[in-house]
Design brief:
Layout (H helix, E strand, L loop, with lengths): L3 E4 L3 H8 L4 E7 L5 E5 L5 H4 L22 E8 L2 E4 L7 E6 L1 H16 L4 H7 L2 E6 L10 H4 L21 E5 L3 E6 L2 H9 L5 E2 L2 H16 L7 H9 L5 H10 L5 H5 L6 E8 L2 E8 L20 H20 L9 H5 L6 H10 L12
Parallel strand pairs: 2-6, 6-7, 7-8
Antiparallel strand pairs: 1-9, 1-10, 2-3, 4-5, 4-12, 8-9, 11-12
Keywords: Iron, Iron-sulfur, Metal-binding
Organism: bacterium (Candidatus Ratteibacteria) CG15_BIG_FIL_POST_REV_8_21_14_020_41_12
GO molecular function: iron-sulfur cluster binding; metal ion binding
Length: about 375
């Protein structure tokens, strides 16, 4: 399969052209220099793209917000009549994703299709093109080589209608250009549709991309025995003491869950005024005491350690046993945002060792 070349000075014009057909989202620096995935505006695209940033670790807020917003209106009602607020289906181009976020998107896609097709989510995401830009300098807290979710993903040997590894196109930084690898038929069609922006890569450029991938992998210093930890979770070898030690330090702010690219917990609430009202949903977190509280007031998980157990066993046991996919993609956002320095990587490391003492999690040297 041929690889292609995309020169960096052509990217802005490519995105402007593509935005005529696609709702195009890119990593963009806001006024506070924070990164987030933002849709190209209808006007002023060239100025907007001056703040395009492909040289980044990963935005703290994951791109799942594009299809699963933190707060959304589901429907309005008045005197027995319901008016649904289902978003119209649109074609979306997500350009500049990291490998871990691509895997997370596949995970969340599966969740919203698994037992019930959530039309609110699916209409926003069913027709999408995922363009991965591999990490040149991975973040300090990233451990994606341990979870096998980055910094680059394997290129499929053959193309099919369904993207096998998650991406449609994968870009590798080789200096003034990106080497472009094709991951699906949709990715191939995109190159054909915008062929004036691409050229066939030479053997030398392919070799440069291999070197770039190797350097990126070597730059990741945080390593954990992920497979052993998942095995211990699945075999119920994790003791209550592990969760109690985490609960001693965790302040249950929910920060780790709000920045997690695979968390899908939400709450639904109604607002009513007179004969009119509306139903909305918003992100929630399984570590919050109210998440499992029943209308009777009874809570099946009243203790902090129980809710902590729910979180880690859901991500590293139940998800894996149910779907074959883990609820952790090794992005490191939880550790980066935690005010008391607890990351899932630390939990994984301790569980993999299967030790009785949890010294690093208890804050002791």
């Amino acid at each position: 399969m041929k690889d292609f070349l995309l020169k960096k000075d052509k990217i802005k014009n490519l995105l402007i052209s593509a935005s005529e057909e696609w709702d195009t989202f890119v990593p963009w620096k806001d006024l506070g220099e924070d990164l987030q995935f933002v849709k190209l505006p209808g006007a002023g695209k060239e100025d907007f793209l001056n703040k395009l940033s492909l040289e980044y670790g990963s935005p703290l807020i994951p791109p799942k917000t594009i299809a699963f917003p933190q707060l959304e209106l589901l429907f309005e009602f008045e005197e027995g009549k319901i008016k649904e607020k289902v978003p119209p289906p649109t074609k979306k181009l997500l350009f500049g994703l990291r490998a871990c976020d691509v895997k997370a998107i596949l995970f969340v896609d599966d969740f919203f299709r698994r037992n019930f097709e959530d039309i609110y989510y699916l209409n926003r995401t069913m027709d999408k093109l995922l363009v991965l830009v591999g990490c040149k300098t991975p973040p300090r807290d990233c451990f994606c080589t341990s979870t096998k979710t980055g910094p680059f993903l394997p290129v499929p040997r053959s193309l099919g209608e369904v993207r096998k590894e998650g991406f449609d196109l994968q870009l590798v930084d080789i200096g003034d250009s990106y080497l472009v690898e094709i991951g699906s038929e949709k990715g191939k069609e995109f190159i054909e549709s915008y062929k004036s922006f691409f050229e066939v890569a030479s053997k030398k450029e392919v070799e440069l991309s291999k070197d770039a991938k190797k350097r990126a992998e070597e730059a990741i210093t945080l390593k954990v025995d992920f497979e052993k930890a998942v095995k211990n979770f699945c075999e119920d070898k994790v003791s209550r003491k592990v969760y109690e030690k985490i609960a001693e330090r965790c302040i249950y702010c929910g920060g780790c869950l709000y920045v997690c690219p695979t968390c899908t917990c939400f709450n639904v609430f109604d607002g009513k005024k007179g004969k009119r009202g509306e139903r909305s949903r918003n992100w929630d977190a399984c570590v919050f005491e109210g998440y499992t509280r029943e209308t009777s007031g009874h809570n099946p998980r009243p203790e902090k350690w129980q809710r902590t157990s729910r979180r880690y066993e859901h991500k590293l046991k139940y998800d894996y046993l149910t779907t074959g996919m883990s609820g952790c993609v090794g992005c490191g956002r939880c550790l980066a945002t935690c005010p008391v320095n607890i990351g899932i990587s630390q939990v994984i490391e301790e569980v993999a060792k299967n030790e009785k003492r949890i010294s690093s999690l208890s804050g002791k040297d």
